[in-house]
Design a protein that fits this description.
With about 450 residues, this protein is an all-alpha fold. Helix content is about 85%, strand content about 0%. The protein contains 17 helices and no strands. It is globular, with a radius of gyration of 22 Å. The two termini are about 40 Å apart.
């Protein structure tokens, strides 16, 4: 790392946290670029109907990235452990098995998507009025499923093979490519929704290509061997990567459930509003994840060295920063809701009238959300995986699915917008209870 070396166990915790904060937030923010740019360009260049179609296809993105992370993170952790133990044979076995597994999944996803494209679009929520538009976008995603799956897979593998700068550069280059060609395809060339999808494919394709150059670099230590593919290793990779898989796939599950309920109770304008909210949430969560990742190595190192005062100091800093970011985001929705809506689409009067109170209500959830994400990482950093996984499943799957199904039926259609604020508030109460229990033990 360039610049003066620093000591995680001796230097001022405030300075350590500050040195990690900006790079961490920058890295997580870049990964949110793909979908955000598509949404803005498509919303402003094609219209709100296209925005609905895009949002219906988002769960497919989440599924492909989740499977890439399942094998990428799971295999990456095991090969890193093997490297640390000096067991290169086991590292090769982990890499080869993970690569074979993700390749098979990518092939199956592509074949399944090509054969069942129209039924898949129907399941996602497409109707006779927007089926062709949803197909226009979805076909690019399923035909090029390996690009999306290998993008998240290789990012994890390359980072674990001690080449994080290449992983970051590949993601950044893909994001820039996506932005440039989104504009070219949608505006000058008038390719509409298909142009946005093509740009996304090109961005992820470039990311994969640049990540593959790692295997021809001097720092590469990975080699694929067909004989090293092992069923026993696969049984270790899957549970190792399961938490990352659940975190990534949870957003797709919740988005799918929201879309179905919104179409059932409130119609397509509500889906367009939710598309704007969901994409704002991606950016907001990238900021919160950056705060968490900035604190993680400092907390883990000091926990391992049995320095609880320094751990508490970093925890306090992280919670303060997460709370402040959440407050700023909530204020933005309160003072500038029309600006947020107009950023993504040319707004109609109905969209502004309905969307303004919904954005203000939903954005309140970002205050407890930032604290929840930070505390989940805090428990993970202290090797309390059960608490971390409990909070992730609670806020990511269990509560939102229960509330999105129950609220509109029991209390009226518009209470569906309370799903996330209630979820994050209840999760925060559980997180604080776990934190208090930790202090008393």
């Amino acid at each position: 790392m360039p610049g003066k070396a620093f000591d995680l166990l001796q230097d001022d915790p405030k300075k350590l946290f500050g040195r990690y904060l900006l790079p961490s937030i920058s890295a997580t923010f870049v990964t949110s670029i793909y979908i955000i740019v598509d949404t803005i360009m498509i919303g402003r260049g094609v219209g709100s109907d296209a925005l609905v179609a895009l949002n219906l296809v988002l769960p497919v993105f989440s599924a492909l990235f989740a499977f890439g992370m399942l094998f990428g993170v799971g295999g990456g952790v095991l090969l890193s452990v093997a490297h640390g133990a000096g067991d290169e044979q086991r590292a090769t076995e982990a890499f080869s098995t993970a690569t074979a597994a993700v390749s098979l999944c990518a092939i199956l996803a592509t074949v399944f998507g090509c054969i069942f494209l129209t039924p898949l679009c129907r399941v996602l929520g497409a109707d006779d009025g927007n089926l062709s538009m949803v197909r226009d976008y979805a076909q690019f995603i399923v035909y090029f499923a390996p690009f999306f799956m290998f993008s998240s897979f290789l990012q994890a593998i390359v980072r674990n093979d001690r080449d994080p700068r290449r992983a970051m550069a590949a993601v950044l280059a893909g994001a820039v490519t996506n932005i440039v060609f989104d504009y070219i395809f949608i505006f000058p060339l008038g390719m509409g929704l298909a142009g946005g999808a093509a740009a996304t494919v090109m961005g992820n394709g470039l990311t994969v290509f640049l990540l593959l150059t790692h295997f021809f670099s001097p720092v590469n230590s990975l080699h694929f061997s067909r004989r090293a593919v092992s069923g026993n290793m696969l049984r270790q990779i899957i549970p190792s990567g399961a938490p990352s898989f659940l975190i990534e796939s949870a957003q797709g599950i919740v988005t799918f459930s929201f879309n179905r309920q919104l179409l059932r109770f409130l119609g397509q304008t509500a889906v367009a509003i939710y598309s704007i909210i969901a994409n704002c949430a991606i950016v907001c969560m990238s900021l919160f994840n950056g705060v968490s990742q900035a604190a993680q190595p400092v907390i883990a190192a000091n926990h391992g060295a049995n320095l609880p005062q320094r751990v508490r100091a970093v925890r306090r800093l992280g919670l303060i920063v997460a709370f402040c970011i959440g407050g700023v985001l909530t204020s933005t929705a309160y003072w500038m809701p029309h600006t947020l809506i107009s950023l993504f689409v040319h707004p109609t009067a109905a969209l502004l009238t309905e969307g303004t109170p919904i954005l203000r209500l939903y954005f309140v959830a970002f205050i407890p959300m930032g604290l929840n994400l930070f505390l989940s990482t805090y428990f993970q950093s202290r090797v309390h995986a059960a608490q971390s996984l409990f909070l992730t499943l609670l806020r990511g799957i269990a509560l939102p699915l229960l509330l999105v199904l129950a609220l509109p039926v029991c209390f009226g259609a518009h209470t569906i917008w309370l799903t996330v604020p209630i979820t994050e508030t209840l999760t925060l109460l559980c997180a604080l209870a776990l934190l208090r229990r930790e202090r008393t033990n």
